[in-house]
């Protein structure tokens, strides 16, 4: 799967985009340089995928339609492909740059050597894009049949049913479905590939600055992956990552305006396709960048008319063709324009900063930000260096703009100036969340003009030209160090856990609705065929309100109303020795390393009463007496869920090398060893559980012997952490010593600087199944429950089915 998603999938994407690019070039008058074929092809495929999913019955055919368009383009452009193949040496640097961008963008996943994604924990929106892409390809842009009683339907309706831009999602869904790959593992490679398509447009732009060969390759690479852009790619912000190459492509087509303004009327088709793709991917807000490019082209066209190099009639025909293609290629956006404008306004005016702690500093636009995350301010000297390098880029930009004006490259200068003005205007009149997006989309333009300063120095007098390599090295090092630090601090999604979750979807598909009390919004995609309801999601089921106090909070199953259980034939829970099991009506159907699936017994009614307890506190007789009276009155019986014999090892009191403890746990930012002791009451097999957010591997030892390594175990929320699979060991009765070692890690390891937070260490007696806890207690013997440590007690109808083991325990008593 790793090779399929990281190698085969981008190769197929490249073939599809180049084929579609050749098709667009052929119908547009055959003027596109090779560097622009992938990005224009991607724009064409976005337009096609938007139209096929808009006509909902055609949605499942989207992958094959995309393949057909690409095949037609490859057939039409076979002579050009042959010519490019023969002259590949002359364009070698053009081939190197997008490959380099892809490798840099996907570096954490490639270095991990397993299918995963780096947006984990940082931006859960990627979960919705995975779910949405899958839905759009299967059902199209038709949301009338959604079930809004649970989270899956609520999320699809809340996002895509409100004119949310889906251009990137339909392209992602169509190309991924073509290879039948899991969307969750193809998502990060898709984002990396789309960013790489921007390298071709960057190549054209830096060429217009006067850079070529290795100089152009280095400039295009740095322009495409400045620090804030790299940060957005790591969190897989797909709308912005798809829109950015379209902005750069608009600039490249502005630079090449003479090729298509003086050509046949269909020469406007590539420009219109790119504009429509940007609108489909980012929404109505992309219109600001389109208008900036159109304004520059309009001025250039007026100059051409005035100089007699262009006639009014062909220009009107060209404008008409461009407008028509823009209308057709972006038809779903135009039809729902009012909704798209409302979404853009909501994003631009929201006071919710999302995953940001505050506005991003304007200095981040200059490419360098020496921090583990673009969302965090660098510490100490790193902050000073970041601002110093920003100042260098600013001075270089002034030199670059002066170069363009001196050379009378007014089209490029005008596009850069208007694009920067658009960015500044949007930042000035929007709130934190939209400001950050705009800053990210503007940063490559800032870096582009900074490399214009390098070009200015190279074409100056000999003694001044000697400073060009130094400036180029400074710009490159600033971006490289910034990106390397973000790579080092990235958190990667747990592969094994999501693989297990996907197996549950295949095993139990169609048997929902399913209650999902874990906080993991990626389950919306992985359990897409189970109609899941997550009580602590943004959109939780109305019947389960107050089960979790806040979004992302821990779910307490004891708060679920008794009648609400009837709506869920299945419950999927994380294996957690300290969490309550579902009510008596549920039996364990399946258990894996991470999850358990509970099924409601056929005909099982709701419990008459449910008393949630804490296993840390003995139950009081007064509470049991009330339940016994109810059971006697309603002719029911008592069922108790016994404690699993949990032993808690105190994390705050453990010995460690000065690590900091603050709720929700112990932060382990540097290498060291934690030591703790515990005692077990009897000899036998025991399970050791480690709970926390653990990206770098921790070595778990017991009584001086290595037990196992625990790493890459992330839950998605540091305030709602989960336990890693249990480590089974045979112990003698008495005292034992547990150690956790965080070793020093190489800076080359992805996520070596990621999360390392320990919340709890637990020990329980080993069991083959975690449902062996129920005990039926006749009403007359209710006193036997007094003073015991129990999970919960229920009053159930006497005719209610219970497990054989529970009946046997009641008989023995």
Descriptive account of the structure:
The protein is an alpha+beta fold and 813 residues long. It folds into 3 domains: 2-348 and 364-488, no CATH class; 608-644 and 767-813, no CATH class; 670-761, Sandwich (Jelly Rolls), CATH 2.60.120.260. The chain is built from 28 helices and 19 strands. Strands 8, 9, 10, 12, 15 and 17 form a 6-stranded antiparallel β-sheet that branches. Helix 1 (2-27) packs across helix 2 (37-54) and helix 20 crosses helix 22 (432-458). The longest helix has 27 residues, at 432-458. The radius of gyration is 30 Å and the shape is elongated.
Overall pLDDT: 90
> What is the subunit organization of this protein?
single chain
Instruction: Please give the share of residues in helix.
Output: 40-55%
- Cα-based radius of gyration, to the nearest Å: 30 Å
Shape: elongated
Percent range for β-strand residues? 5-15%
Low-confidence segments: 806-813
State the end-to-end distance: 53 Å
Number of strands: 19
The number of helical segments is 28
**What is the count of structural domains?**
3
Biggest sheet, open or closed, and with what strands and sense?
A: 6 strands, antiparallel
Computed structural class: alpha+beta
């Amino acid at each position: 799967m790793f090779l399929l998603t990281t190698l085969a999938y981008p190769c197929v994407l490249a073939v599809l985009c180049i084929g579609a690019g050749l098709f667009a070039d052929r119908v547009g008058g055959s003027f596109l340089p090779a560097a622009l074929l992938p990005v224009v092809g991607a724009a064409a495929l976005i337009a096609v995928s938007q139209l096929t999913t808009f006509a909902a019955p055609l949605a499942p055919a989207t992958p094959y339609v995309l393949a057909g368009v690409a095949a037609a383009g490859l057939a039409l452009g076979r002579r050009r492909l042959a010519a490019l193949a023969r002259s590949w040496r002359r364009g070698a640097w053009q081939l190197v740059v997008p490959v380099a961008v892809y490798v840099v963008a996907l570096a954490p996943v490639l270095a991990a050597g397993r299918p995963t994604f780096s947006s984990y924990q940082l931006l859960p929106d990627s979960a919705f894009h995975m779910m949405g892409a899958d839905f759009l390809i299967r059902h199209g842009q038709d949301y009338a049949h959604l079930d809004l009683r649970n989270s899956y339907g609520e999320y699809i309706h809340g996002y895509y049913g409100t004119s949310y831009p889906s251009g990137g999602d339909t392209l992602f869904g169509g190309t991924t479905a073509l290879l039948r790959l899991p969307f969750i593992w193809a998502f990060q490679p898709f984002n990396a590939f789309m960013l790489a398509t921007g390298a071709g447009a960057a190549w054209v732009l830096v060429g217009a600055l006067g850079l070529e060969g290795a100089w152009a390759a280095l400039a295009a690479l740095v322009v495409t992956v400045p620090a804030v852009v790299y940060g957005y790619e790591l969190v897989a912000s797909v709308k912005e990552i798809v829109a950015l190459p379209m902005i750069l492509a608009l600039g490249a087509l502005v630079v090449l305006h003479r090729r298509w303004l003086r050509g046949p009327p269909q020469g406007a088709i590539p420009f219109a396709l790119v504009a429509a793709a940007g609108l489909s991917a980012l929404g109505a807000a992309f219109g600001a960048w389109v208008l900036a490019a159109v304004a520059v082209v309009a001025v250039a066209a007026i100059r051409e008319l005035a100089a007699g190099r262009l006639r009014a009639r062909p220009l009107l025909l060209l404008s008409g063709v461009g407008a028509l293609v823009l209308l057709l290629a972006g038809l779903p956006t135009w039809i729902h324009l009012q909704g798209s404008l409302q979404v853009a306004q909501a994003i631009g005016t929201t006071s919710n900063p999302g995953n940001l702690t505050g506005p991003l500093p304007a200095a981040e636009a200059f490419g360098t930000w020496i921090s583990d995350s673009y969302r965090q301010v660098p510490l100490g000297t790193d902050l000073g260096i970041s601002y110093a390098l920003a100042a260098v880029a600013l001075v270089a930009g002034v030199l670059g703009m002066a170069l363009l004006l001196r050379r009378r490259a007014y089209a490029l200068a005008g596009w850069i100036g208007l694009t920067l003005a658009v960015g500044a205007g949007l930042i000035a009149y929007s709130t934190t969340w939209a400001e950050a997006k705009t800053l990210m989309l503007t940063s490559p333009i800032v870096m582009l003009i900074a490399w214009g300063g390098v070009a200015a120095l190279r074409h100056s007098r000999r003694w001044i030209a000697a400073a060009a390599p130094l400036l180029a090295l400074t710009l490159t090092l600033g971006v490289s160090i910034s990106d390397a630090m973000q790579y080092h601090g990235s958190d990667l999604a747990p592969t094994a856990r999501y693989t297990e979750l996907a197996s549950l979807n295949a095993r139990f598909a169609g048997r929902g609705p399913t209650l999902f009390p874990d906080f993991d919004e990626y389950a919306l995609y992985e359990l897409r065929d189970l109609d899941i309801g997550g009580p602590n999601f943004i959109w939780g089921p109305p019947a389960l309100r107050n089960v979790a106090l806040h979004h992302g909070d821990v779910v307490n199953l004891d708060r679920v109303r008794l009648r609400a259980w009837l709506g869920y034939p299945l419950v999927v829970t994380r294996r957690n020795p300290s969490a309550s099991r579902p009510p008596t009506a549920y039996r364990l159907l399946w258990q894996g390393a991470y999850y358990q699936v509970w099924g409601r017994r056929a005909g099982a009614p709701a419990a008459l009463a449910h008393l949630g307890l804490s296993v840390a506190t003995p139950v009081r007789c007064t509470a049991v007496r009330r339940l016994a009276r109810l059971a006697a009155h309603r002719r029911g019986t008592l069922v108790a869920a016994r404690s699993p014999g949990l032993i808690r090892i105190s994390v705050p009191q453990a010995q460690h090398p000065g690590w900091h403890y603050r709720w929700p746990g112990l932060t382990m930012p540097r290498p060291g060893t934690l030591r703790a002791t515990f005692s077990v009451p009897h000899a036998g097999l025991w399970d050791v559980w480690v709970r926390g957010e653990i990206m770098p591997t921790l070595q778990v030892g017991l009584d001086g012997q290595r037990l196992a390594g625990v790493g890459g175990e992330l839950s998605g929320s540091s305030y709602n952490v989960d336990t890693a699979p249990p480590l089974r060991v045979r112990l003698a009765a008495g005292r034992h010593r547990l150690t956790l070692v965080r070793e020093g890690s190489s800076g080359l390891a992805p996520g070596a600087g990621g999360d390392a937070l320990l919340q709890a260490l637990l020990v329980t007696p080993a069991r083959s199944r975690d449902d062996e806890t129920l005990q039926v207690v006749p009403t007359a013997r209710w006193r036997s429950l007094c003073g015991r440590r129990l999970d919960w007690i229920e009053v159930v109808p006497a005719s209610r089915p219970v497990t054989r083991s529970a009946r046997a325990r009641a008989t023995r008593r």
